[in-house]
Structure formats: C-alpha cells, structure tokens
Design goal:
single chain; 318 residues; alpha/beta; TIM Barrel; eight-stranded parallel sheet; two-stranded antiparallel sheet; 12 strands; 13% strand
C-alpha cells in the first residue's frame, strides 16, 4: 500500500480506471472486473462524472453509477474512490455553484457520503482560480470530500492553486493526475518538480500509452495488426522505430520477471519519483491479472535505468 501525498488515503499502488465501465465493459463485466481487482488486493478506483458522455445515448455518470451499484452490492472494505468535475455535459466548468452541484450529483451516483479524492478534471480559464479553490475547500469543510486534487493542470497553475489555498487557509491538493508513460515523459520536467516541492503524489493516466505498451500494436498502420478501433489507431501512432525499441526492452524486462509488457510498463512508472499509483483500465476480467502484477512487480535499478535510456525520446505531435 502507498500513501497519497500528505493525505491519510492509503491505497494499492495501482488505480483501476473506470472510464470503460458502462462503455466497453457492460454492468456485469464491470462487476467482474471490480471483483477481480478487489480480490487481488486492489482498493483504488478512478473515475469521472463525465464518463462516458462521449458515447451516443449516454449523458455522463454511467461509470459512477456502475461503481456505486457495485459498492452497494458488495460493500467492500477500505475502497478509495476518486472522481472528477468540469467535463460532465450538465456540469461544465469550475464555478463554485457548479462544483458543488456536480459533487452532490457524483455522491448520489456513487451512493457514498463522501468522495475520497476529488479532482478538478481540466483547468477552467473562464473561472477565477480563487473561486475554484474556495469551492473545493468548502466541499472538504462540509464533509462532501476528503481530499482534493488536480488533473491536466500546468505546473504554474498548480503552484498558483497552492498559493491561493494557503492564503485562504483551505486544504491543498494532495495529488496530480498527469499524462505520463514510457513514451510521454514531459511530465518529468515540469509536473514532477511541483509534486516534489509540495509533497503531492502523481496518479498518472494513459499509463499504457493507449495500449501501445501492451505490445499489441507494432505497426503505424493499425489495420496491419488486425485492430481497427480508435484506440488502436491512437496506439499505433507510437509504433515508430524508436517506439519499437522501447517495446523490445520492455519485453525483455517483463520476461525477466515473468510478467507481461503491460505489467513491466506499470512497474517502471511506479518506480518514478512521486508516482503513487498509475491508472490502468481493463475492459475484460482476463486483463486484471496484468494490472495487479504491475502493482506488485519491482524492477531493479538497472532495469529502470535501461528503460529510461531507451525512452529518452518523445514522438512528434503526441
């Protein structure tokens, strides 16, 4: 288990992504995935109020409702749920009234009295940051939220949030959720230093680079690998000669530990400074074992260094 920042949230070192629940995983499959994750020691679930509003016929909140139904049915001990605000079609932005209304709606869907970790999903340049920070602080004071966090914020805006929180005397964010993986390491130059400065933890999304780091996509032509989904097309963009070199090393490291490439990629991310728990999702229960292994496999310093060296490259326009 690992502690998130300066909070009292003690979590499994991998967060199960809830973006697929109610989308590529129906209710029954979602329950099976959650059951397998919890049975394997997992207690950290990440979602957002907007999941999965992008699907035709969906309105947002589908993932939270499934998680809430699972919590009500299974009544598991010690589960930590993180959710987010700003992108739900009915609750866009981070104005104070909207933040409050969105949090109350999430609480209803999740069926809980308090949200464990509440993220500002995306920065809202139309709303004064002072208003947003005060609104999040009020949620904590009123017991609707245990701890606050930010996602997709720049380093400067995170510093500004902390400054305002200290001026207002409200709790500071305990976590940052950035885009971070073996083929997207820019986070190390801006966000990691902020996290270190303020004692915050990283909970990275796209930990498997949209599936590329599973090794399934080894051609820039998604159709060549027999995958034609939007996810496959996104992952295939990384399958350049440099990207394939990363996969070669990742496969060798995984083999040395008897785990999959996905597990090794998650283990590398866990080894990085300030990372508490990468986020990874499973649309099938059979995929959960690799996620659990990624949370329990410890790479050697030499293996981390080798992966660092081969991944010192960022593909253009990613």
């Amino acid at each position: 288990m690992t502690r998130i920042g300066h909070s009292e949230l003690d979590v499994f070192p991998l967060a199960l992504g809830g973006n697929v629940f109610g989308w590529t995983a129906d209710r029954d499959e979602s329950f099976a995935i959650l059951d397998a994750f919890h049975a394997g020691g997992g207690n950290f679930i990440d979602t957002a109020d907007s999941y999965s509003a992008w699907v035709d016929g969906h309105e947002g909140g589908e993932s939270e409702r499934i998680i809430g139904a699972w919590l009500a049915d299974r009544r598991p001990d010690g589960v930590v749920v993180a959710t987010k605000v700003s992108q739900h079609p009915q609750f866009r932005g981070l104005g104070a009234a909207n933040v409050r209304a969105a949090a109350e709606a999430s609480l209803e869907r999740l069926g809980v009295e308090s949200i464990d970790l509440y993220y500002a999903h995306f920065d809202d340049p139309e709303t004064p940051l002072e208003e947003t920070v005060a609104a999040f602080g009020q949620l904590v004071s009123d017991g609707l939220v245990r701890d606050t966090a930010v996602s997709n914020y720049s380093a400067d805006r995170i510093r500004e949030w902390v400054r305002i929180a200290r001026e207002l005397g409200v709790p500071e964010p305990v976590a940052i959720q950035p885009h971070y993986n073996l083929v997207h390491r820019e986070t190390e130059t801006d966000i990691v230093p902020v996290a270190e400065e303020y004692g915050m933890s990283l909970v990275p999304y796209f930990a498997l680079a949209k599936g590329f780091l599973t090794g399934k996509y080894r051609s820039t032509d998604a159709d060549a690998d027999g995958h034609t989904s939007p996810r496959a097309e996104a992952a295939a963009r990384y399958a350049t000669p440099q990207g394939l070199q990363i996969l070669e090393v990742l496969e060798r490291v995984g083999d040395a530990h008897g785990v999959s490439m996905a597990s090794a990629a998650l283990a590398w991310l866990r080894a990085k400074p300030t990372v508490a728990a990468p986020i990874a999702s499973a649309s099938k229960v059979s995929q959960v074992a690799d996620l659990l292994a990624g949370a329990t496999t410890d790479l050697t310093a030499d293996e981390v260094a080798e992966l660092d060296a081969v991944s010192e490259w960022t593909p253009a326009d990613m």
